[in-house]
Design a protein that fits this description.
The protein has 5 helices and 6 strands. It is α+β, with helices and mostly antiparallel strands. It has a single domain, classed as Diaminopimelate Epimerase, Chain A, domain 1 (Roll).
């Protein structure tokens, strides 16, 4: 950056070579969540177990459903099955639930605006049941 501008560095071959696969993965994840997500009562939810995603950009649900207040997602990796619960920082209707307190009841934790619950990788049915309960509570 002492020789080239930031724009020249960012658009250069080396940066673009590294950036392109990250962008492609993001766009694929965005489309998968678009296809899998359902929205009702200020909650967007989606289950990515069968798609093989261990993680995702947590702001995608709010991009796809700006009207939502909460998101609840289910993923699975080699170490755990995970419920991710979040609140939209740009929500048109303010958050009324403490997400950490909800997640703590299932053995997880977090903060007032975001939290998670982990299950064993094989505990998919238990995690799906917990997702239903969490979504029902957030929908009230």
């Amino acid at each position: 950056m002492t020789v080239k501008s930031l724009e020249e560095v960012a658009t250069g071959d080396e940066v673009q070579r590294r950036f392109e696969p990250i962008l492609q993965q993001h766009l694929e994840t965005l489309e998968t969540i678009r296809r899998k997500a359902s929205y009702a009562n200020r909650v967007v939810q989606f289950d990515l177990i069968d798609e093989g995603y261990e993680g995702f950009n947590k702001f995608i649900p709010y991009y796809l459903h700006p009207e939502t207040t909460y998101s609840v997602a289910l993923t699975r990796g080699t170490q755990r099955t995970k419920i991710s619960v979040g609140s939209n920082p740009w929500a048109p209707v303010p958050r009324t639930h403490n997400i950490a307190k909800i997640c703590e009841r299932y053995g997880g934790g977090g903060h007032a605006v975001v939290g998670a619950v982990s299950f064993k990788p094989e505990e998919v049915s238990e995690a799906r049941a917990a997702v239903k309960e969490i979504v029902a509570e957030l929908s009230e």
